[in-house]
Amino acid sequence: MISIIHNTYDKNIYVRESAILNIKALEESGIDYQYIIFNDKGDSSIYDDIKDLINDKVEYHYSDFNFGLKLTSGGWTGAIPLLKGEYIHNIGQDDVFTCAFYQALLPKLEDPNIYLAYSNGFVVNSALVATGQFMGPFSEIDYSSPRKIFDLWFQRKNNTLTAANNYIPAPGVIYKKVLHELIGPPDIKSFKGSADFEYWARILFNNLGVHYNPKALWLYRMSEYSYGSKSSANTDLWNSLIKEKYQHLITSN
User: DSSP letters along 97-124, please?
Assistant: First the structure.
């Protein structure tokens, strides 16, 4: 079983559409799934938009604790105690996934040496029209090396971590729940809204296998609601925290 965490926090007209399309993709994939719409102490009226979708496979949960500090990047960690599946896929408010995405990545996770799988995706506008690809020209990098993946995700240059941009494909990642036993769960206490970013780094520094598919198999929607389209001081916050923890490991290699 795969557990999907559809994280929400503010009123977004695309949440319902995304949920419908994502559930359809899972049904077409023929896989057993748990779909959690997780409201991270956001607008409680979100429930009114999706309540007719709730059934034995689709759940809605509201958190009184704001795990992600209004960032979808960290809010999904609040749903961890609810997970039933052996695989975890957390997604943003309005991103869209395809049947091909699940069919391509889940078989790779059957390999005992692979703990995380992800793919390239299309960047789309609010109407789901493609404007580019998520990973851009970086698709040609050698993804067999965890160190090189870290360099790409965190844009490491000259043994430093850049302070602003990153290429972490958080919505396009599926990973094994057993990782929480191997390296612990995401550290929401220390890293708050950037807990999932730090978690990807921890996976790589433990030299756990990662699989990458360069095909664009999901849709990263850029709209007026997208965190990626907003300016926020939190962008530098999570980079500085990760740098503080990992800089000594980077410069020693």
Answer: E-HHHHHHHGGGGGSTTEEEEEEEEEEE
Per-residue pLDDT reduced to its tens digit, 63-90:
887 766 655 556 777 888 999 999 999 8
Per DSSP (E only), the strands in the chain are: 2-8, 33-39, 58-62, 87-91, 96-97, 114-124, 130-133, 156-157, 160-161, 173-176, 209-221
* CATH number of the domain residue 75 falls in: 3.90.550.10
Number of domains present in the structure of the chain? 1
| 98: Cβ contacts below 8 Å, ≥ 6 apart | 25, 217, 218, 219
What is the average pLDDT score of the chain?
82
Amino acid identity at 119: S
Provide the domain limits for residue 62. 2-251
In the DSSP assignment, the letter for residue 194 is G
User: What does the alpha-carbon distance between residue 175 and residue 2 come to, in Å, rounded to a whole number?
Assistant: 10
Q: In angstroms, rounded to a whole number, what is the distance separating the alpha carbons of residues 84 and 104?
A: 22
Helix (H) or strand (E) segment spanning residue 241 = helix 234-251
CA-wise closest residue to 90 among 177, 190, 209, 216: 177
Closest CA relative to residue 195, chosen from 79, 75, 115, 40: 75
Tell me the pTM: 0.86
Residues 86-103: tens digit of each pLDDT: 999 988 889 999 999 999
